[in-house]
Design a protein that fits this description.
This protein is mainly alpha-helical. Strands 1-2 form a two-stranded antiparallel sheet. β1 and β2 form a beta hairpin. Helices cover about 55% and strands about 10% of the residues. It is globular, with a radius of gyration of 17 Å.
C-alpha cells in the first residue's frame, strides 16, 4: 500500500508551518491544529527539536490537546498536555462567544 513517509510529511507540512502557522502565532493568534499522526510527528519534531529516532517512537494519542507556548522569536518555551475538558474550560474563560456556546451545550436536556 502507498503511504506518506515521515520525510514526505515534513516536506509538505513544514513550509506551511513556517509560512502560515508561525506568522500567525507571532502576531499573537491562537491556533488549533488537527491532523493525523505522521504530520503531527513532523511538526513536533520541528518545534520540539526531536531526533528522527525519538519521534518514530513518539506515541500521538487521539484527541489529546498539546499546548505550546512560544517566545517572541518562536522558540518553544513551554508545552503542556491537557485533558480536553480542562482546555475547553480555560478557553471559555477568555472568550465570551465560547462561553455562550459551552454553557448552551452544558444545559441539561428536558
Amino acid at each position: 500500500p502507498r503511504s506518506e513517509s515521515l520525510q514526505q510529511c515534513q516536506l509538505r507540512a513544514l513550509p506551511y508551518w513556517q509560512e502560515e502557522v508561525a506568522q500567525k502565532v507571532e502576531r499573537g493568534q491562537r491556533l488549533l491544529i488537527v491532523s493525523h499522526g505522521n504530520t503531527l510527528r513532523a511538526i513536533r519534531m520541528h518545534v520540539e527539536k526531536i531526533s528522527v529516532e525519538a519521534v518514530e517512537r513518539l506515541e500521538i494519542p487521539s484527541a489529546q490537546p498539546l499546548v505550546y507556548h512560544f517566545s517572541d522569536e518562536m522558540e518553544l518555551v513551554a508545552m503542556a498536555e491537557e485533558k480536553g475538558r480542562a482546555l475547553i474550560q480555560r478557553a471559555v474563560k477568555k472568550d465570551k462567544d465560547l462561553a455562550w456556546l459551552w454553557e448552551s451545550r452544558q444545559a441539561p436536556s428536558s
